[in-house]
Amino acid sequence: MARTIAHVDLEHETEDVYFAGGCLWGVQAFIATLPGVTFTEAGRANGTSQSVDSEYDGYAECVWTRFDPTVVSVTQLMEYFFEIIDPYSVNRQGPDTGEKYRTGVYSQRLTHLEQAREFIAARDDSDRVAVEVLPLANYVRSAEEHQHRLARFPEDSCHIPERLLTKYHS
């Protein structure tokens, strides 16, 4: 199912950003433990299809991340994100290779993209960083078998070390 509009929590406003960091199982497991994150969902960003049943269509495996901006900022989420990725690698994270495993940050809010770009630009190694920062053009939810996969099957393969997956777990 494609997602094209932002959702709002009725108690307080939340915001959405999408992180692509290789295989989404570990990325979702890590992001779900972060302070201020209220929801995560495994999916595909910026492909051309509205279905997970089609051929590869240019998407990046990603995690839809809903967060409370009064608790955590996009800049802080970027700091966390950079703990679990190789920011210099193109189309590869750990043993997973291919365009769908590229790193990226996507949002429908220009302010999120600006904050992500500013975070990267402020780094001493910014000229080497291969993380794309783009508007979210398309999002498709991954199949149920991929949702919170490592919580259900902790022995499954993951490119993110266990010590990082549980670093912020309360």
TrEMBL record:
One of its GO terms (biological process) is cellular response to oxidative stress. GO terms for cellular component: cytoplasm. It catalyses: [thioredoxin]-disulfide + L-methionine + H2O = L-methionine (S)-S-oxide + [thioredoxin]-dithiol; L-methionyl-[protein] + [thioredoxin]-disulfide + H2O = L-methionyl-(S)-S-oxide-[protein] + [thioredoxin]-dithiol. It comes from the Bacteria. The active site is at C23. GO terms for molecular function: L-methionine:thioredoxin-disulfide S-oxidoreductase activity; peptide-methionine (S)-S-oxide reductase activity. PANTHER family: MITOCHONDRIAL PEPTIDE METHIONINE SULFOXIDE REDUCTASE. This is Peptide methionine sulfoxide reductase MsrA. It comes from Gordonia insulae. The gene is msrAB.
